[in-house]
Amino acid sequence: MAHDRDLPVLPDGIVVVVKEECATCHAVEPVLVQLAGATSLTVYSQDDAGFPAEPAPIHDADLSVSWHHDIETVPTVIRVVDGVEVERTVGWHRPEWERVTGVSGLGPDLPVMRPGCGSMSVDPDLVDALDVRFGASVLAARRIDVAAAEDEMEMMFTRGWTDGLPVVPPTEERVMRMLAGTSRAPSDIVATVPPDLVDVTVEKVAIAAVMAGCLPEYLPWVLTAVEAACNSEFNMHGLLATTMPVGPVVVCSGPGTRAIGMNSGGNALGQGNRANSTIGRAMQLVVRNVGGGRPGEVDRAAHGSPGKIGFCFAENDAESPYGTLAGEHGIESGVDALTVFAGEGTRCVVDQLSREPDSLARSLAAGLQAMHHPKLVLGFDAILVMGPEHARVFADAGWGREQIVAGISEHLNRPGSELVRGADGMAEGLPEAFADAPSLPKFRPGGLMLAYAGGGAGLFSEIIGGWANGDVGSKPVTRAVTY
Amino acid sequence: MTATATRTILDPTSERVVAERQRLARPSSLDGLTVGLLDISKPRGDVFLNRIEERLVGIGATVKRYRKPTFTKPAPVDLRHQISVECQVVIEALAD
Questions:
Q1: Partner-chain residue, chosen from B12, B69, B72, that has the shortest CB–CB distance to A204
Q2: List of E strands, A298-374
């Protein structure tokens, strides 16, 4: 975020910001004396009103000037014309100082160059408090004071703000730090969140991200997930209201997943990785706290599933033999992206013996046929998550994504007579009108999707079963991540 | 992070002020009123509504039938408006 609010105006001429604790600032003391004699000079000292002795500095005691003018290094030299910064240089570098100040022959006894020191305004021990002191006016959320004798963790449970697990208290410091993870303004509207249809701001998403335990670098992924889920196409409203045990599953890919440390390997769909565990959770906290979607209220799930706390994982796209789910939906390779899918928990397909693709395709098809009910077809999508060991069987045979899906689907066709109500002794099934259909597939076109994640050992795949698909229910939505 | 710095937290909710509207008084009789029956498109909802329609017509009400495109989404705004101008009473059927 740019620090342009209530900007203290710098005096015209040359401005130099120093601190006594910095050896380079001591080294340039004679240069400051030179400049004071040659130009209009103002020196700001961060830590010592008496440094330098000459010329007398202005003490930037509260670091307001340093914070507002984004001073990251001392010394910093700024040329100011009509109250506006024209250019700056940092550290000591004679040609640069001479260029910026317009004064030649500076510091003849100094080496040509010497790096500066860190500014106090970016000191990790101080920066959060400064961000709040000078920048928190951008935060619009209501401040809630916690009584001295009150436990804020218990207070947040009591107010119904949690998903049943503890949340991190969203202090101004933490929320400001979280907002540094995006270039978007805190007041930007991200989406309209069901069921209450509330316009959610970047700030409120950042609050949820803090509570979920996210790091600032996860925030763009959370913002993108909220955008992808809260629209008529994905239908977060219906997903929330349904009696089925489904929630938004977030499948991430691209180099950014590695940059933020997501897990796409062993236990990728499980616990233990901060990014995987908190990105999906943050989105669900937005739905809960901003949208008002809570179990027992609009959330009518009969059983729910553990994934409704938050279900998010990365694909191992760097090693995937068949690309990414985002790629399947038109995102170019190498672009950070995520797909939200209305899905339940995972179920495992074990096949430790197939070494030929058709044999493995038959095993996977048998598992997929049973999803939700073996006799209910075309109404639900699924994501099949394969890891290295199953994927290798197909890759070694030269099968790509389309051939894998086609090869599995070939074994997912059943005559209507086997699927109708009453067939096989089960009342559940398709309406009688389908009895004469010679062959019905389990999945609509595009309804069987592939993702690639998992550890290097284990001849298993995971099925993430979907919910009512298409216009009736939910379509998977893929978005490039907005930073 | 000092202990005092954690003592103010930000409200994570929508901070929405809910608009409260006065409910219409319940009619003492349905005689002569138009009753809208909204089918949300769940299987067998029509079975329930067909029976309700028979009963309502039997006591002198006029019945209009409506249907949501899908049970998974809120009724479209145009449909809600249509019901509000055509009916004095509405019954929505849930079924599973």
A1: B12
A2: 311-314, 337-343, 346-350
Say whether pLDDT at A200 is over 80: yes
B13 and A175 within 8 Å at the Cβ level: the answer is: no
Domains in chain B, number: 1
Report how far residue A131's alpha carbon sits from residue A246's, in angstroms, rounded to the nearest whole number: 40
- Chain B's closest residue to A244, CA to CA, is B72
Length of chain A counted residue by residue: 483
Residue B15 in domain:
no
Alpha-carbon span B42 to B46, nearest angstrom: 8
Domain membership flag for residue B78: yes
Distances in whole angstroms, Cα of residue A257 to Cα of each of A222, A476, B9:
12, 20, 30
| Structural domain includes residue B45 | yes
The structural domains of chain A, ordered by start, are: 13-121 (3.40.30.10), 172-480 (no CATH)
Q: Is B9 within 8 Å of A198 when comparing Cβ atoms?
A: no
Over residues B61-71, the pLDDT tens digits come to: 999 999 999 98
Instruction: Extract the runs of DSSP E, i.e. beta strands, from A336-474.
Output: 337-343, 346-350, 380-386, 413-414, 440-441, 448-452, 460-468
Do A204 and B8 count as a contact with CB atoms less than 8 A apart?
no
**Is B39 within the bounds of a domain?**
yes
For the purposes of burial, counting CB atoms within 10 Å of the CB of A13, is it exposed (0-12), middle (13-18) or buried (19 or more)?
A: middle
Q: Cβ distance A314 to A453 under 8 Å?
A: yes
Option in B8, B12, B73 nearest A145 (CB): B8
Distance CA A248, CA A238 (A): 11
CATH number, position B79: 3.40.50
Q: What is the pTM of this model?
A: 0.85
> A123: distance to nearest CA of chain B, Å?
14
For residue range B20-59, what is the model confidence (pLDDT) as tens digits? 888 888 889 988 899 999 999 888 888 999 999 999 999 9
Summarised one tens digit per residue, pLDDT across range A15-47 is: 999 999 999 999 999 999 999 999 999 999 999
Written as six digits, the tokens of A327 are: 């790629």
Tell me which residue range forms the domain holding B87.
30-96
SS3 assignment for B41-89:
CCCCHHHHHHHHHHHHHHCCCEEEEEECCCCCCCCCHHHHHHHHHHCCE
Which residues on chain B are in Cβ contact (under 8 Å) with A208?
12
Residues 6+ apart with CB under 8 A from A372: A380, A465
Q: How far apart are CA A473 and CA A447, in angstroms?
A: 13
